[in-house]
Amino acid sequence: MLYPHHQSALERFIAQYSQNPEVQAIVVGGSLVKGFGKPSSDLDVLIVVDEEAFEQRKASGQLSYYSEDFTDYEGGYVDGKHLSLAFLRTVAEKGSEPARAAFWKSFVAYSRGDAAELQSLLEQITTYPEEGVQDRIHRFMAQVQAMHWYVGEGEKHQNPYLLSWSANRAVLFTARMLLAHNRLFFPYHKWMLRMLELAPELPEGYLQKVDALMKSPSVQGTRDLCDLVLGYQDWGTPKLHWTNLFMQDSELNWLSGQTPIEDL
Asked: Residue 232 has what DSSP assignment?
């Protein structure tokens, strides 16, 4: 939802930035359109430029955008990224979940061309990819099982870093399992738990256990959280034992240059 002062800022931004001939479209995204924003939130824009401009900006490291010139509320600013239609098509074809989630509920606010065609591309991007979902769940599950073990190692070796790391990753990967189960995108860490609040199917007490564990990391709390999710339903039988899946995704992934399991 855009508040009136955000809408006014958007109109001022479009009036000026659409005069730039390289700008093909302006898309509004971010926390406001996702329903996670508040009156003080910044305005997030995705600026679609022509391919030549995109390549030039990418080469010169000028893909991001920031300005306080268009907002008239305390702490307000416009935050954005420059991208191209080819980039959007690549996201639709093979984008990671965080890459897709950036466009969830976004809308075309300005376009030189066919706005309906661009909106259709955004909808393709934000259609949850069903292919391979069971494999992804099993890979996340292997991480959960590894954290069930690692947290005990943290206690055994009196290593508070390992204990805290294990607790945090237990939250991350139980959440990834549940998001995938509910066919919801992982929106990166800032909004992960807010996205889980939208999930229709969660183990009873899951979010409360997460909150308690983050406030006080512990071996028992970590294992209780892991057990809660692992026992929530029959997740199926992975092709490989969790130790092998963990090794592939966390120790040998550099060999293939694959996307880190955290961002998959």
From this structure: S
